[in-house]
Amino acid sequence: MTDALARIHAAFADAGVTGWLHAVGIDSGAQLDAGADQPVCTASVHKLCLLVALHEHAAAGRLDLTEQVECPPAGRTAGPTGLAAMLDAARLSLRDLALLMMTVSDNAAADLLLRRVGLDAVNATTARLGLTRTLAVHSFGEMLATLKEDAGPGGARALADPRVITRLRALDPARTNRSTPRDMTRLLGAVWRDEACTPEHGAAIRRILGLQVWPHRLASGFPFDDVHVAGKTGSLPTVRNEVGVVEYPDGGRYAVAVFTRTAHTAATLPAADAVIGTAARIAVDALRAEELRAR
């Protein structure tokens, strides 16, 4: 594992990011720790916690996933995808809102679900699963509001200024939605082992995670038709994250969480995106080799 850790840290350095990673064999328990207990801001990765809470409530009969929700254009949480980018009124079920929230990271859909489930319920779910370093402190709309307030009169253009970046509450794990790489792989493992929800709801969660449309981070490290990657990204200024599960045709299942920060304020940094896949691949290869040696 020492060589793999060195290669992961070198890959992060070459991409110009500071990175933290945890990877674990879901069935074997073999793990690789590259800063697994570092507190990190989750950004949209926290939508995974909301998704699990939603399905926990459905499994307990506290809500019906086919329940219809009115989605008027006024008051929608901002964002570049899904309902957040749409102009007209819509009406969707809770489960279809969840699909938008996870596959295209729709902020408006997420906050509609959060309004139905509640922030306290999300935290109760993560606490029940033993995620002691994971906490949701605000909605996605509230998080975006802190960005706007902290950026000041310069607006979005001010986010290109490194001095402004340093004062953003949304980038401070002590003041925003937060977790650790280890907590996130623990959550993924619970979902894949049907410990987070009943098997029916666990399967629904896994299906949605497998439909995420973004191939440029975690999935980029596994460009094989017979390897399945399911995950959730998270992005904020200077932050690029993804957590997910990589499944091999031989039955190997690996939960991986990668969180990164960069000093560069550019919104488009392909190398910073791609290193998430690179680091994950190094980690998973090392775990598979470890499992082979243990047989």
Automatic annotation (TrEMBL):
Coiled coil: none annotated. Residues 25-260 form the Beta-lactamase class A catalytic domain. Keywords: Hydrolase. GO terms for molecular function: hydrolase activity. InterPro entries: Beta-lactam/transpept-like, Beta-lactam_cat, Beta-lactam_class-A. Pfam families: Beta-lactamase2. PANTHER family: BETA-LACTAMASE, BETA-LACTAMASE-TYPE TRANSPEPTIDASE FOLD CONTAINING PROTEIN. This is Serine hydrolase.
